[in-house]
Amino acid sequence: PDVRVGVIGVGQMGADHVARITERIKGARVSVVDDYVRETAEKVAAGAPGCRVADSWQELIAADDVDAVLIASPGRFHREQATAGIDAGKPVLCEKPLAMTPEDAYAVVEAEKQAGGAYVSLGFMRRFDREYAELKDALDAGELGEISVINCKHRNAHTLPGFDDTMMVHDSAVHEIDAISYFLGEAVTEVQTVLPVPGPRADDGQHDPMILMFRTASGRIITDELYVNTDSGYEVRTEVLGSAGIATIGMGIDRVTTQLSGGSWSGAIHPDFRPRFIDAYDAEVQAWVAAVADGSRVARRSATTWDGYLAAATCAAAEESLTAGRFVPVTTRPRP
Ligand code: ISE
């Protein structure tokens, strides 16, 4: 029988997941949805055959017709909802970030410890992107030699109102922060945020562009250039400098036209992150459904609550560095 998925939060990302599971994912269907805007939930439910609207997210998690829970609400609700999923003994796919503070993220790690196993897959979908996975495999095989520097770029066309510095760190840079541990498998020990002259479309409370610099335990440096109001397209690039080679992924161009007259060429970039990572999201959700069905609950390539905790600790140091203006050490507690 199909895995019956309950989706909490069906705004932009959650509605996208409902459509994905309904149209493309094998072995699962969406049985229940919840949103704090009831009409939004009703509209989304109408597009998924056999789907009903829950009275509350608590009711959704407890429901008999929900085998597994997908959380796509805003990040500040994730700690409470993920913990409730664990306590109910249901597998959870939680969108990033795991929580907005290291303390809250650690509480979810501890809830799993008490429950006696891993229940939560964390939605760092880039781990399922083909280029990311290939680069990861190349790094693991030592193909690039010794790695000293990674340069990342993260560009969005626009941000939504209220997307301040905190969101830039916890919602955008958090992807690169997870990528560091995914690629290198080592801890970030300190982070510095560097603020250039603001760009023309930076919102109130937003330093855009923003540059983050991370140092790892072995002394590698990772730069992350965030520019979230380019007014152009969605670009996510990673360049790895190794002693045996330099690898670049994510050139970010959807369509390249080389047959223009006059010897020039042109390309097109999509403004939205969902089409860019559609295959990664599909692969992530399909791997999660398979893990739910076979009882392992968390797919091998997936990020875990511990990854979410490490990312939250690094984000907290990055945020502190915004005002401290220097490298801030990342402090972490031992794994329970
Ligand atoms: C958004 O929440 C995402 O997860 C996107 O991948 C990212 O590019 C964007 O900056 C975030 O706001």
TrEMBL record:
Residues 3-118 form the Gfo/Idh/MocA-like oxidoreductase N-terminal domain. Keywords: NAD, Oxidoreductase. It is an enzyme of class 1 (oxidoreductase). It holds the Pfam family GFO_IDH_MocA_C3. One of its GO terms (molecular function) is inositol 2-dehydrogenase (NAD+) activity. The keyword NAD applies. SUPFAM superfamilies: Glyceraldehyde-3-phosphate dehydrogenase-like, C-terminal domain (SSF55347), NAD(P)-binding Rossmann-fold domains (SSF51735). Residues 132-247 form the GFO/IDH/MocA-like oxidoreductase domain. The keyword Heme does not apply. This is Myo-inositol 2-dehydrogenase/D-chiro-inositol 1-dehydrogenase. It comes from Brachybacterium fresconis.
